[in-house]
Write a structure and sequence with these properties.
Length: 229
């Protein structure tokens, strides 16, 4: 199948085009300039693999949790393709995409995205099934979920930072680090094509990103509103 995938859950956007068994990928790690470069990047990967928009069977992206800006950029770009070329867009929970390669792990799998200093978006999996839904916790709160006898596979773009800090706090818990710089594009293709085979519907026009926490603007507004009351 032919597709475009965008991993937009972090400040580093990964854009990949798939044509049958071949893929081309590019990465945008350029801060606020991502908004002006995302559509040209999509155009670039499609040209490199010789795909036209009319050739696409679907598009897919990490739906969240993740950065507010990245998720909105990715979804807006793919919905534009839906409107202009009637290409269905599918969303995969970000933490599911990052944990996908470890679905056969005998250990519990902790999938992480760094939210801000000492706080992470997380989900926990066992035998390929999610046993803790997407959440937002501090390092101490995450560590309280495990014991010193546990051995955990840690993955996702927040894995490296988490391991570094967690080992200083709980050196006895065995955290095994995997792919700290891994992006979810390959998993997005596989997970979405599973959805298509199962007959699951793509995103609707009104569907938006999955947000686990409130935006900074919402938090500031609520604080100011309470002061006024």
């Amino acid at each position: 199948m032919n597709s475009i995938a965008i991993d937009c859950a972090t400040s580093k956007l990964s854009i990949s085009a798939k044509k049958d068994i071949y893929t081309v990928k590019t990465v945008l790690d350029i801060g606020i300039r991502q908004s002006e470069k995302l559509l040209p990047a999509i155009d670039y990967v499609m040209k490199e693999i010789e795909l036209n928009p009319s050739d696409l069977d679907y598009t897919t992206l990490t739906l969240g949790p993740g950065t507010f800006t990245g998720l909105r950029l990715g979804l807006s770009a793919l919905k534009a393709l839906t409107l202009s070329h009637d290409v269905p867009v599918y969303g995969i929970p970000s933490l599911d995409a990052y944990s996908y390669d470890f679905r056969y792990s005998r250990q519990r799998v902790l999938s992480l995205i760094e939210a801000k200093e000492d706080e992470f978006f997380l989900a926990i999996y066992s035998n390929g099934k999610k046993i803790l839904d997407d959440d937002d916790k501090s390092i101490d709160e995450i560590l309280s979920l495990f014991t010193d006898e546990d051995e955990i596979t840690v993955c996702g773009p927040g894995a490296g930072t988490f391991i570094y800090r967690a080992r200083e706090i709980s050196p006895l818990i065995r955290f095994n680090l995997h792919s700290p710089f891994y992006d979810g594009c390959s998993a997005l293709f596989e997970l979405t094509e599973q959805k298509i085979k199962e007959g699951l519907e793509p995103l609707k026009d009104y569907d938006g990103p999955i947000y686990v926490r409130k935006s900074e603007a919402e938090i500031v507004y609520e604080k100011n509103h309470k002061k006024e009351d």
